[in-house]
Amino acid sequence: MSLDQPDAAVRALLELNRAFPHDPEVLFTTTHYYSELASRASQELAATAPTSAQAEQLEAEAYESQGDWDKAATEYRKILEQNPQRHGIHYRLGRVLLSKTPPDVENAKKELNEELKIDPNNAAAEFVLGETARQAGQWEEAIGHFSKAAKLDEGFQEAYLALGMSLNAAGRFADALPPLESYVKMQPGDPAGHYQLGTAYARTGHKEEAQREMKLQQESAAKAPRTPQP
Q: Alpha carbon of 18 to those of 9, 14, 22, 24, 67: distances in Å?
């Protein structure tokens, strides 16, 4: 890195990780130098293309990481003025608007729906729309969005749990079984999944299965790391 040979540095890091997997010192070194590479790349981007959508997105993401939602939203809107069809920007703007206090739910939903017009396969946008509907108690709308998110990304674990929770809340306990069964297979250590599945089993007359899931819920809750008390 001192000799400005990033290609050689990356090759060395890859070789270190192959030779010494999970070694704390190697992981520390890898983190340090990848961070340095990222910093150099961002500086070069700012120097060579300061008004590009990519440079503005990096700036917006920096504001977002700092919790400065207004500045982040302003930067994302600048990008959309230049390139209204850029993938991911409406989604990120929508998420920023939901992070504000109080959240700007209606405008966030507009941005997320705009993202889906550009990218109909954006499972994350469907999921966030589902969450806004679920938090408002709009179960059927939430179910629709979570179902789409799970279909678009079969590995989207949170979508299966949220779908099952919404189906349970809507009283559709039999429909909740498949997504919740899928979720507990993916995340067997999550007490919430076992609790929701146990509830669905109980309300559909599967007494033994419900008892099993409630036992698993208690066991997984006991194993879960506890937040230290101040």
A: 14, 6, 9, 13, 37
**Cα–Cα dist 151/129, whole Å:** 15
CA distance 137 to 185: 27
Query: From CA 201, how far away is CA 62, in angstroms rounded?
Result: 45
* CA-only gyration radius of the chain, Å: 22
Please tell me what DSSP assigns to residue 227.
Answer: P
Nearest Cα neighbor of 159 from 194, 136, 134, 189 is 134
Coil/strand/helix, residue 182: helix
pLDDT digits (tens, 9 = 90+) for 21-54: 999 999 999 999 999 999 999 999 989 999 888 9
d(CA 96, CA 83): 19
- Report d(CA 196, CA 184) in Å as an integer: 10
Nearby residues of 207 by Cβ (< 8 Å), 6 or more positions away: 201
Q: What is the C-alpha separation between 3 and 79, in angstroms, rounded? A: 36
Is 167:143 a contact under the CB 8 Å cutoff? Answer: yes
Peptide linkage before 102 cis (omega within 30 of 0): yes
Residues 153, 69: Cα–Cα separation, whole Å? 28
pLDDT digits (tens, 9 = 90+) for 48-84: 999 888 999 999 999 999 999 999 999 999 999 999 9
Distance CA 192, CA 77 (A): 37
